[in-house]
Amino acid sequence: MISPLLRRLLLAGVCGGASVSLAHAQADPIKFGKINELDLTAQNFAADSAASAVVLCDFGRSRFEYNDGQFRVVFERVTRIKILKKSGYDEATVQVPLYHKATNEEKLTSLRGFTYNLVNGQVVKEKLNSDAIFREESTPNITIRKFTMPNVRVGSVIEYSYLVVSPFTFNFQDWTFQREIPVRWSEYRAAIPEYFDYKMLMQGYEPLEVQERNEATTQYTISWSSKMEYGERTSGGSTVVTPRVTNHRWAMKAVPAMREEPYMTTTNDYISKIDFELAGIKWPDEPYKAVANSWEKIDTELLNDEQFGSQLNKGGFLKEQLTPLLAQTTDPAARVAAIHDLVRRSVKHNGNNAVYASSTVHRAYDQKTGNAADINLLLVAALRQAGFQANPVLLSTRNHGRMETGVPLLSRFNYVLAHVALPEGKEMLLDATEELAPCGMLPHRCLNGVGRLVLPKTGASRWIELKTNDRLLSYRQISLTVDEKGGFSGKVHQEHAGYLALSQREKLRKLGEKKYVEELAASHEGWNIPAYTFKERDALHRPLTLEYEFASAGGDAPAGTIYLNPLRDFGADKNPFLHEGRRFPVDFGTALDEIVMVNITLPAGYELEETPKPMTMELPESGGRFTYAIQPGTGIIQIVSRMNLSRPVYSAEEYAYLREFFARMMAKQSERLVLKKKV
Question: pTM for this structure?
């Protein structure tokens, strides 16, 4: 049993000098400097010909050392990559993030690297030089050490190895098995002594080739010099402790490249990896001490922070602006909308997401610009000043990653919204960063699972769903007149509502009306748009409307047969789901509705040769519906196409149905109408 004196030394961190020996050593999957010459030939990579590069082996391990009075985590890595194309040259530049706080910092040591090339049948290797190693400051607590391998060309094999020594036991190295290029073998080992309790969070869709765990012992030799202890001088000495150590080993084989696909949040949500979080520490003869954060602690920390909680009640400077707004109506929802409009118009979003205000909400108002926290904390403060029960909501945006409610980490958040309680138990989520979004519409980037509503009462904060009643809506009504040469002209009444209205208003503001219409005409072969009118540009709660005339010339002479494909220009242009399989959800963020109505006036003496069959199809579990109907008449044809996706998210198991749904819809919309001249 460890002595009380040694236990105090461990806790106080006054020990100096250590050595460690690990049991149950496992053969490494890679040895630095010993490459297989076959990896320098092209024929060995036929299966990976579509890839820009291939990770041949990525091997890492973490272990603990005791030195200078504290435990350190030592992380070793050896990586070997084959370059297959010029687009794979980026793999030759490596970034290693290093954390630092106060006087403590993680250090990169023992960096080595070689580039191997096959020249005239001989292996030539070139060493990584120190002048190719750089240092960059990424954030206030993160430094990036970056290096670039020399003389990289198509066919090269690059190899590098390094150690990271960290005094931060809470920052145990995570491991990512999957990359944007294929990985032949990825292996991670971790030797963790019994003093440290880590949560291990595995994610991804690729199977583990190896998952092993065994128990052994580790020896730490701890020495100390004489010092005063409780009024008495203790003599110097040393002792050996042999705690249990758990040796973990994980490996994946033939890991496919993680590809970006349509309608996904971020690849980081689905890539195969393992994360570590320090949950607690158990010293010998001491009770377990939980060190993991809790959401309640995070709530308290935020509410006491000068750049978060302290800003929520600093809306007094807006009294003069709020008084006339509140005098115009007594309706709570209308008052909220007026306050939202005031903040939205007063402070422009600088494009930065943030949890904390950059300084104060008053300063952001004066400067008329700020990050997301500046604007939305100002919105909360203004609502409170007006007498509303308003509070902040923390969240992670779609490109930042999904929210893990079981892992209390402040770093999981990168954005803040406003929440306001209304009469009769109603509530609203508000964001004032989008100049062209109406009150109550959340930016699409915020539609990402759940957010945390931070309430002033201890323990009252809760998770709320980040959902919206707004949809992505498109409605087109087309009147089309066809002439005997196959040319046509017509009028279009087009409405974009919900999230489509927001994106189109942004495009219209960026391009201006003339260029917007020029791009519209250019996207349809042979089109000319001689007249157009935009309506409801500034009525943000209403659909953006565009009415325009268009024309397209036909042939030089009357045709006996005219082929029309009217939905080609007004329906979906391509199936977004090209791959046969998908392992992660399809996340549109919001429901979708698309309606196209076409009335076609035929040239005199022509008739529809054959009427296409109508179609109705539905996704399982009422997930969506497509209908197509055509009604021929005397000299007139009417087509109605409607597509509805009723849910914002579809599971990977539903992907095959969704892909087939789009394929069949587009096949139907691409069917041609054949007009024949009557004999």
Answer: 0.86
